[in-house]
Amino acid sequence: MSAVARTLSVAGWQADAYRRVWRGSLTVSFLNPIFFLVSIGVLLGTLVDRSDPDLGGLSYLEFVAPGLVAVTAMQTAASVTTFPVKAGLKWLRTYHAVVATPVKVRELVAGVLVWAGARVIVACCLFVLVAAIGGAFTSPLAALAPLAGLLCGLAFAAGLAAVSSGTDSDQWLVAIFRFVLVPLFLFSGTFFPIEQLPDWIQPLAWATPLWHGVALSRDLATGELDGLLDTVHVVYLVVFTVVGAAITVRACEVRLRR
Amino acid sequence: MIEARSLTKRYDDFTAVDGIDFTVERGETFGFLGPNGAGKSSTMRMIGAVSPASGGTLRVLGRDPEHDGSAIRQRLGVVPQEDNLDLELDVGQNLLVYGRFFGLPRDEIRRRTAELLDFVQLADRKDARVDSLSGGMKRRLTIARALVNTPELLLLDEPTTGLDPQARHALWDRLYRLKQQGVTLVLTTHYMDEAEQLCDRLVIMDRAKIVAEGSPRSLIDRFVEREVVELRFGAQNGLPPLDDLGSHVEVLQDRIVIGADDGDGVVDQVHARGLHPETVLVRRSTLEDVFLRLTGRSLND
Asked: Which domains does chain B have, with CATH numbers?
């Protein structure tokens, strides 16, 4: 049995478990993004558009929708690799059962991330479909925006899995949601260009995976690709994912193979 | 099946397993008997190739767990001390998912699932949520799960701890059947009756070391007398001198334990001295007495 097959067996396990609870995930992965799109993109957007803001020739809806692809990716990823990872390691100890089989720790982590990626891509595709019907995109390349979402989602999945597996207290996750994910959501260029932020804060935005995901998704959705900058976005998100995954594997080794 | 030489496990500055040697042969049921904290579970985790040894050598199924962990685990069944079934899945799905970790095709797992649920007497619970099962049923499901890959070697860490007597006997019965089918069983326990019932051979562990090894019968023959007299004198100051009775006298907190080949003879002598213990019990010696003799402590202290 190959490493790939073992990795996929883990992703398959996650899918089986998800089949029981998928309805509950619709809020985070489907309804919330649509609610944001309608309330902020469409309704608040009509007010914003009256002041004729400088959004690179985009309507506010067209500006916000690609950002929400990346936000959807982030929130879906967070629902897969935060509390469920803690449960597998500590509360239900199901990860301990997995590593007693031929599955290796790194295959377990890879399988969980593959599953997170699958959840992210489905959520992003659904969102893009609805947003496209609502006329939120200006370029056919928007169909590729879920790929930007996938890279962004994997970066968050890996980073949050690293936090979930590397910390003892559950309070860390609560703190991450409150003090990291929510501010990122508000300030990473989804709802306004980060050039609006004070100059000294902008580099902070550049350091976050969400900003790179939002920027890449927006370039695709508007069809205005920038070769160099978009390469930077892709490389950043891939490196973030790889580093996060490596830390997760290390932390899980410590917990599962003492 | 398993060969360990000077096997050692250290956690930081704590030594959980201190240079133990043992060998497990194909088809036998081998036990690690000892109190909590003796190093049994650490040893099991090393055999199960989920915990690297800190020293010594270990071969499991002819391979080195350090380098061939995945290949070893492919041929093992593991029943951990704490149940770690997936509560989000039903009974049948738990087996299906687990079988896939071993690379088994779905059809084969389905066939095995029917057989195994039958074997552990859970056939009518296939679609039940794991949450709804009793403690004994969860244990039996964990055993079924451990058998899904038809393992050559089944590791059971404290298989009946926390179960009521009826559930324990039901579980012993299943394990006994596995043993008859030729599966090699390795188990840890701190119940001497469990070790006596199931094990062909066992080692007694105490404080990270093996203190004795043999069949339950041979350990009893070697280390203790045939019978034991237990006397309880109730609350009183100063115990009567009994050291010259029997071959070995142990004064415990709550009772006096006298090893003797003729228990009734000892009781007669106690009475002849005009002593009237509150309770008198004459019984055959057990592994508990072996443990007491070797370590000066009782197993469940």
From this structure: 2-220 (3.40.50.300), 225-284 (3.30.70)
CB proximity under 8 Å: B 238-267 to A? none
pTM: 0.92
Amino acid found at A205: A
Residues with Cβ within 8 Å of B72's Cβ and at least 6 positions away in sequence, in order, are: B49, B60, B61, B63, B65
CB contact under 8 A, A6 and B76: no
- Chain A residues with CB under 8 Å of B98 CB are 97, 101
Q: What is the token pair recorded at B28?
A: 């036998």
Residue A180 to residues A55, A197, A224, B42, Cα–Cα distance (Å): 26, 17, 29, 39
Express each pLDDT in A90-132 by its tens digit. 999 999 999 999 999 999 999 999 999 999 999 999 999 999 9
Q: What is the ipTM of this complex?
A: 0.90
Structure tokens at B92: 């049948």
- Per-residue tokens: B258: 């006298």
